[in-house]
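Page 37, continued from 36.
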C-alpha cells in the first residue's frame, strides 16, 4: 500500500526545531507549501528561513500561549531532553519535559483538533533481540528510554486525537545548528587522523537525519485519517537500510573520506562506565514504513554520506 502525499497547504508546528533533527525538518519543509512554526527550548535565531521561538515544554502557560498563536493543524513533536547522559544528570527535569510536556501538548492537540506526530526512539527496547518491529514488546533500560516510552500511551490513549508514534533509529549527519555533536566529532577525528574508540558490540540501524526528516515531513503532509493505516496500533518504525556496529560505521565513514588507516579502536560497551546498561542491538524493522512510502529515500551509509560529506580530507 503506497500512500500519496497530500500537497495541500498545512500549518505545521515543529518542536525541538533547534536540535539535531529539527533543522533537517525545517530544510525539507522550506521546499513545501506549508506554514511552519518552529519551537526551540532556549535557542534563538533563524534556521532555513524559519524564526525560532523558545518555548519551554515544562511550562504549561508558555506552551498553551504559543500553541494558540501557532494554531497548527499538525505537530511534529521532536522536542525532548534527548541525550541519555543529560537525562541521567537530572531525571526529574527530563520526565517533566519528555512525559508531562508531551502529555500537555497532546491535550492541546486533542482539544484543538490538531494531529500529532510524536518522535520516539529505538531506545524503548532493551537491545537483547534484533530487528524490532512495531509489535515487539518495549523494555527500556535507560531513564531516557523510559521517559520516551512513558509518553507514548499518553499520545495514543486519547480518543479524540489523531496521532502517530514514530520510533526512529540512531540518526547521523552533520549538525546544522552550529553546535557540533558526536558525528561531527567523529568525522573531524577521522580527518585529522586522531584516535577514536567506537563500540564493536553495539548494533544499530542508523538513519541519516535527512532521510528521517523527509519521512516525517511526508507523514505530516498526509491527508487526515491516513495514519490509521500505518504501522501497528499507532506506532511506526523508521530505521536505516542497514544494520551495523558503531565501529563498522566509523570504518565506513573513514573509507568514504578516503582515509586508509583510520585510528579507530574497537571498544566494548561492557567496558564503558555508565549508570545504566547500554543496549546491545536496537536495530529496527522498517518494513511497514517502506511498504507505505516506497519512493522516499532509504540510502545506504555510503549513499547518505555522499550527500552530506564531500569525499577527501
Ligand atoms: N538523535 C537521535 O539519534 C535520535 C534517535 C531516535 C529518536 N530521537 C528523538 O528525536 C527527537 C529529536 O532528537 P535530537 O537528536 O534532534 O535531539 P537534540 O539534538 O538533543 O535536540 C533536542 C531539541 O529539544 C529541545 N528541547 C530540549 N528541552 C526542551 C524544553 N524543556 N522545552 C522545549 N524544547 C526543549 C532543544 O531545544 P534547545 O536547542 O533550545 O535546547 C532541541 O531543539 C527527540 O525526541 C529524540 O528523543 C533522536
Amino acid at each position: 500500500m503506497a500512500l500519496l502525499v497530500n500537497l495541500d497547504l498545512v500549518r505545521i508546528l515543529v518542536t525541538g526545531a533547534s536540535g539535531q533533527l529539527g533543522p533537517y525538518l525545517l530544510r525539507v519543509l522550506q521546499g513545501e507549501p506549508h506554514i511552519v512554526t518552529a519551537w526551540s527550548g532556549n535557542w534563538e535565531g533563524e534556521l532555513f528561513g524559519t524564526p525560532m521561538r523558545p518555548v519551554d515544554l515544562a511550562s504549561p502557560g508558555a506552551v498553551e500561549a504559543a500553541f494558540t498563536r501557532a494554531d497548527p493543524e499538525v505537530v511534529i513533536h521532536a522536542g525532548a531532553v534527548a541525550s541519555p547522559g543529560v537525562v541521567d544528570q537530572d531525571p526529574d527535569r527530563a520526565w517533566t519535559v519528555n512525559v508531562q510536556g508531551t502529555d500537555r501538548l497532546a491535550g492541546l492537540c486533542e482539544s484543538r483538533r490538531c494531529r500529532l506526530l510524536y518522535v520516539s526512539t529505538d531506545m524503548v527496547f532493551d537491545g537483547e533481540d534484533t530487528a524490532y518491529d512495531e509489535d515487539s514488546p518495549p523494555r527500556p533500560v535507560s531513564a531516557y528510554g523510559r521517559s520516551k516510552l512513558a509518553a507514548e500511551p499518553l499520545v495514543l490513549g486519547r480518543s479524540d486525537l489523531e496521532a502517530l508514534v514514530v520510533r526512529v533509529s540512531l540518526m547521523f549527519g552533520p549538525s546544522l545548528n552550529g553546535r557540533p555533536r558526536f558525528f561531527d566529532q567523529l568525522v573531524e577525528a577521522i580527518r585529522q587522523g586522531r584516535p577514536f574508540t567506537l563500540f564493536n558490540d553495539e548494533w544499530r540501524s542508523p538513519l541519516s537525519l535527512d532521510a528521517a526528516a523527509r519521512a516525517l515531513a511526508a507523514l505530516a503532509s498526509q491527508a487526515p485519517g491516513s495514519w490509521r493505516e500505518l504501522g501497528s496500533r499507532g506506532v511506526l518504525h523508521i530505521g536505516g537500510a542497514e544494520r551495523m556496529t558503531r565501529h563498522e560505521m566509523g570504518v565506513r565513514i573513514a573509507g568514504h573520506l578516503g582515509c586508509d588507516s583510520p585510528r579507530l579502536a574497537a571498544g566494548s560497551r561492557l567496558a564503558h562506565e555508565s549508570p545504566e546498561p547500554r543496549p546491545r542491538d536496537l536495530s529496527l524493522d522498517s518494513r511497514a514504513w517502506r511498504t507505505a512510502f516506497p519512493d522516499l529515500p532509504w540510502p545506504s551509509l555510503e549513499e547518505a554520506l555522499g550527500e552530506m560529506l564531500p569525499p577527501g580530507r
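The chain has a mean pLDDT of 95. Flag for discussion at group meeting. Residues 11-175+207-242+282-295 form a domain with the Rossmann fold fold (CATH 3.40.50.720).
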